[in-house]
Structure formats: C-alpha cells, structure tokens
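Long-time lurker. I teach an intro course on protein structure, and each term I like to show students one example going from raw sequence to a predicted 3D structure in token notation. This year I'd like something fresh instead of my usual example. Would anyone be willing to generate the tokens for the chain below so I can use it in lecture? Attribution to the forum is fine with me.
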Amino acid sequence: MGDATPVSGPPNSGVASPASSDRRPIRTRDVRWVKSVASFLARGGVSPNQISLMSILAAGVGAASLVFFSQPWNAIGCVCGVQIRLLCNLLDGMVAIEHGKQTPLGVLYNELPDRVSDSVLFIALGYAAGIPWLGWLTALLAALTAYIRVFGGALGFAQDFRGPMAKQHRMAVLTVCCLLSIIEHLAFGTDHSLPTACALIAAGTLLTCWRRIGALVRSL
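-- Reply from a regular --
Happy to contribute to a lecture. Here you go:
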C-alpha cells in the first residue's frame, strides 16, 4: 500500500480533495455574518479549542431537554442545542485556520467533542423516543462513520465525508423531526416524529458506514 495515493473525487462526491482532506466542505463558511462572528471571536482571544468544548455544552443542553422536558419544550430545547452545536463546529475551524489560531492539540479538539456531542444527543433521542437501544445503536454508528473517515486519512487517503448521513445530515434530520414533533403534538396529540428520527438516522448512518468502507476498499 506504499504506492497508494490520496483519493480525490468529483464535485459533490463527498470525498475531499487532498489539499482539504482534513476539513469538511461547508458552504456556510462563506456567509458574511458567520465570517464576522469568527473574526469577533478571534479578536476577543477565544481559542478554537474553547469553541469546540462549547459545542459539547450545547449538545448536552439539547440532550437534557429531550430527556427531562415535555413537549413542546423538549423539542425546542433540542433544536436550539443542535444549532448552537453546529455553529460552534463551524466557528472553531474558521477561527483556527482563517485567523491563524491553530494549536498542536487542534486535531484532538476537532474530533473528540464531535463524538461526545453525537453520542449524548442520540442516546437522549433514543430515550425520548421510548427506544433506548436504538439511540445507543445510533450513537455507535455515528462514531463508526468518523472512525472510518479518520482511518482512511491515517492510511494516506483524503478523508471521506460522503453521506447520506454524515454529521450535518444527521443534525438536519434531528432538527426537522424535532420541529415536526411539535406540530404533531399540538395538532394530533401523538409522538411519532422522534422515533422516526431515530430510525432514519440509524439506517442512514449504517448506509454511510457501508459506503465509506466500500470506497476505502476500492482505494486500497
């Protein structure tokens, strides 16, 4: 495998180019207000690692809302926590790279908080949906997608961010289903949206693992 070359794919393939293999492609980085917030944080002395840790706190708030609050507050709290978590995930990289705040521990802070955030949210989702085992399984599969991606990078290939249920997709499904659960609860008095979210994320994440493993096998 010593002659293996980094994998690069066509646009929208989900595979980052070698030059950006350690960074998830996100269009929101080019939004003006996001750049302004990143500049403000950098000027204020906030480190990327601190922002990464804040993402865990945001995810924890969202998870606690799911488990301990009733409808519609549990879904509202989860949506807020998820969106703040995603914003932190966006800003930490921007502050680090665009504003020259990278540190030797940056790679660690870039990965571990995401794994913790995913786990607490999906485990909480499973309990809120009344199917705890599925929440634990979803958390495990989410961690596995990241493992496959980073493992491919460790082998010298570009990190594979393909879906259909990469991190941003998982958070999008969770957000939409939480919002739908509010409408469902108020209109019909039923609670099917959260179990549906858990099942969709688990199935999609399993498919994502399969696709990333397949791509890694072909590259090897």
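Some talking points for your students: The CA atoms of residues 8 and 17 lie 5 Å apart. The first helix runs from residue 32 to 43.
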